[in-house]
Specification:
Low-confidence stretches: none
Number of strands: 3
Order of helices and strands: HHHHHEEEHHHHHHHHHH
Largest sheet: 3 strands, antiparallel
Number of helices: 15
Strand content: under 5%
Mean pLDDT: 89
Amino acid sequence: MGRKKPSAAALLFIIMVFELSAFVLLSLRVQPIDLGAILFGVMMVGVFILQYALVNHFFPYIDRYILIIANMLAAVGLIVQYRLNPEIAFKQAGWLALGMIAMVFALLGVWKLAVWQKRRVTYILAGGGILLLALTLLMGRSAGGATSWFSVLGSTFQPSEFVKLIFVAVLAAVFAQPLQKRRLLLCFGFCGAMLGLLVLQRDLGAALLYAGTFLILLYVGTNKLSLVGLSLIGLGGGAYASYRLFDHVRVRVAIWQNPWAAYESQGYQIVQGLIALASGGLLGMGLGLGAPNVIPAYHTDFIFAVICEEFGLIFGVAMIAFYVIFIVRGALIALNAKTRFDMLLAFGCTSMITLQSFIIIGGVIKLIPLTGITLPFVSYGGSSMIVCMMLVGVLQGIAARNGQAEDEMLEQMEGNRP
């Protein structure tokens, strides 16, 4: 007899026990005991369980494992954020709650509405995305060297995060239709405008993420290696031009090649991240026993280094494995999709989250130049958290359509039986 696979509910229970245990440990760091840590842990465990129960009840066709993975990663993020700064953890919890609500709206929007691939809607979305990035370039504020932020009523948000949804929806709508030269040229023009605006904003991480997603959807949508090859040549030329034209690109590449040469200036962040990875070893120094504060951007770009320092490299590899499982589950949703548009949309959402994960992890471990984006569901950031949860919602909406269509087909087959 084969082993029975653990249910999603059982996995959720294990994750919640882990989170609650971590917050109990955090409460013991000080004397007297930090009751706030325990209360925060209990509150978040309740939120995760309530979310899972409600979504599972009202949307029975969803992919529960994708939801569990997103919850697990968010739970790890909250643990580390509270360990670093309780105030940031409370803010992150608020963004997560908004993200959960946004996920439900995205789920319903994809499941119940069928307007997203209409030509007029595609043009409106494409124009809106380009306009939003152009306004960000002209009127946005700079942070971390990139002009990619808007400030509204005292709160800041990153438009390029929300444009991810537009980008994927437009590409899915274009490639879902029969391949035509005019439509293809418009698509290339749209992608070129998006990438150009992101490069001008100096948002290199977002530009790389958009380019990678475009290549994946181009191949899946057209199955033409010649187009992918030409696009790679074009993107390579654009990358080389950016390297020659922009000082910050050359600095990033030089630091990647030898961060020790500029240890006291630009290379300090990468070097400290590598030291943190080495200090943690396989099993980690223990929650609360590391020194993450010496790493700049420890709660955003370099949170993976903090996790590996305190939880160990084995735990870091396990997190990467969860992202890999996310890829598999997202691909299964795409392969089971009943329409070409749904298939491409699912592949696009999956690509966005997984590419973002591996781009930032690759930068932290010095596999590729550091690009300065967030680790999905884990890093601190309201825009990133909300959009990641919305991408999950889009995937769940497609899964719901898949499950509903399969049930209707089974009912029809049973009704036709003599």
